[in-house]
Write a sequence for this structure.
């Protein structure tokens, strides 16, 4: 359980990787199967009504649990166990470099990431290359705790009535007349505090509606 992770972390242990997953009612059975096969710990959060808030709060819980890296998964995105294990172990992830996967959006014609250059995502998927992105959906990504702590240092603290504290990592913002929703706002905050975002075609995942 999360409480057990917190007690161990308090005695000097640091979890290598923790999967965090917001879910309204359930996590797709195929996603659960991949997580179970990967052997990685999972921190789910159910029955949310405010996604920016719940994403931010679950990041705080993951950091408090002592994880070195947080793996973001949406409840309806379906990675493979091997992809999850790669995210948990790769040396490509650093405090200055976050890694994104990609998956088709509901339109079925658009991927969940926006490349920084003009190359097409479709070609990169075929050639299994990585490329820098401007932003991407939080359905599949992994971020180093130091990257998130730099973001945290720039944010106010939210105190819940039950005493829980967290920071608004995913609070939507407006920049240059563009609306940055919960996932895109975290991408912007990461980049503003020294973390570049890179998408790996090897992390192409399915979506539950496909």
């Amino acid at each position: 359980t999360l409480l057990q992770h917190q007690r161990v972390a308090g005695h000097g242990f640091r979890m290598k990787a923790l999967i965090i997953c917001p879910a309204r009612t359930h996590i797709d059975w195929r996603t659960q199967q991949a997580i179970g096969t990967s052997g990685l710990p999972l921190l789910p959060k159910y029955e949310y009504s405010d996604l920016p808030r719940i994403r931010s709060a679950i990041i705080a819980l993951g950091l408090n649990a002592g994880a070195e890296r947080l793996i973001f998964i949406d409840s309806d995105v379906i990675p493979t166990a091997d992809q999850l294990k790669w995210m948990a172990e790769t040396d490509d992830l650093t405090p200055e470099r976050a890694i994104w996967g990609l998956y088709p959006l509901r339109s079925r014609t658009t991927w969940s990431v926006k490349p920084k250059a003009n190359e097409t995502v479709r070609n990169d998927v075929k050639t299994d290359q990585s490329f820098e992105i401007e932003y991407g959906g939080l359905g599949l990504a992994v971020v180093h705790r130091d990257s998130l702590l730099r973001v945290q240092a720039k944010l106010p603290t939210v105190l819940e009535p039950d005493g829980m504290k967290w920071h608004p990592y995913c609070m939507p913002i407006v920049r240059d007349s563009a609306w940055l929703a919960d996932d895109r706002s975290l991408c912007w905050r990461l980049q503003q505090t020294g973390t570049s975002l890179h998408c790996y075609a090897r992390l192409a995942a399915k979506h539950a509606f496909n």
Q: What stands out?
A: The helical segments are 2-9, 29-38, 51-64, 81-89, 121-127, 145-152, 182-192. Residues 117 and 134 are 9 Å apart (CA to CA). Residues 1-13 have pLDDT under 50 and may be disordered. The chain has seven helices and 14 strands.
